[in-house]
UniProtKB/TrEMBL annotation:
GO terms for biological process: thiamine biosynthetic process. This is ATP-dependent RNA helicase dbp2. It comes from Penicillium diatomitis. It comes from the Eukaryota. Residues 13-278 form the Pyridoxamine kinase/Phosphomethylpyrimidine kinase domain.
Length: 281
């Protein structure tokens, strides 16, 4: 059977825990082949991002074209996109080659607080890329930023019904489906806001399908761990791998959520800050 190919367009994380480095490990762990277009390089470690070098967008264009004109891709995964110009290039190049399914992780600010996409580029991401996206994987702050950027009201979610409502709102911005990650809002068993420290809290990720208007929930225990660096990148790459392997969206998401959950639970402490999850399980 031919190996499944995923084109990853994202930034490099010199600490190895997030970005392209994590994406490639996740894809390898799923038996998929990764080709890459690097949008930016970060100098970072587990304590934070020290600096970012933005790769010129015309060079990103060459990388994407080189990959798609030769090896090709079954799925495209988008992570840190670095600049508004690069977003234009991605939209143009993917449209020029017939666009495969796109998993878009709208990376904007790292957990440590570094700006990974300039604020001025958010509108570009929203208007150019969301309409091409098969599944968008925002966390709650990213979902709210995208909706606010469109000039729409966005109340702060407090319970599961609010999360589902937020997922629907963001889906109306263009993607076919949205996986809204609930990690920033730990819930009690009856789906109300929990205190962060509450050990019995749960995290609910909401998959909203804009075509069928159906919501599917993935529920996991709220894990208290310092090793969560790169969870967003890893989840989106695992979804991309599962889609490339032929799973439908619900199974692709369910299995990716589980992959990340096990990765957090079995992580080893690396560095003095927020370390990477385990990708080899
Ligand atoms: N660095 C790069 C290159 C990334 O793509 C990302 C997230 O997508 C991060 C850092 C931030 O990862 P985290 O927020 O998990 O620390």
């Amino acid at each position: 059977m031919a190996v499944k190919r995923v084109l990853v367009i994202a930034g490099s994380d010199s600490s190895g825990g997030a970005g392209l480095e994590a994406d490639q490990r996740v894809l390898a762990a799923h038996g998929c082949y990764a080709l890459t277009a690097t949008t930016g390089l970060t100098a970072q470690n587990t304590l934070g991002v020290q600096d970012i070098f933005v790769v010129p967008s015309e060079f990103v264009r060459k990388q994407i074209n080189a990959g798609l004109e030769d090896v090709g891709a079954d799925v495209v995964k988008l992570g840190m996109l670095s600049s508004a110009e690069t977003i234009d290039v991605i939209a143009e190049t993917l449209q020029a080659h017939s666009v495969p399914p796109i998993v878009l992780d709208p990376v904007m600010i790292s957990t440590s607080g570094a700006e990974l996409l300039p604020k001025a580029a958010i509108a570009k991401l929203r208007t150019r890329l969301l309409p091409m996206t098969t599944v968008l994987t925002p966390n709650i702050p990213e979902a709210r930023l995208l909706i606010q950027d469109a000039g729409l009201e966005v109340p702060e979610p407090r319970n599961l019904d609010d999360l589902i409502d937020l997922a629907k709102r963001i889906c109306s911005l263009g993607p076919k489906a949205v996986l809204l990650k609930g990690g920033h809002l730990p819930l009690t068993k009856d789906h109300q806001t929990a205190r962060n420290s509450e050990e019995s809290a749960i995290v609910v990720d909401v998959l909203y399908d804009g075509e069928t208007s159906e919501s599917t929930l993935s529920q996991t225990g709220y894990l208290i761990s310092k090793n969560t660096h790169g969870t967003g990148c890893s989840l989106a790459s695992a979804i991309a791998a599962n889609l490339a392997l032929g799973k439908d969206m619900r199974r692709a998401v369910r299995s990716a959520v589980r992959f990340v959950e096990v990765g957090i639970k079995t992580s080893s402490d690396l560095g003095r800050g927020s370390g990477p999850i385990n990708h080899f399980h």
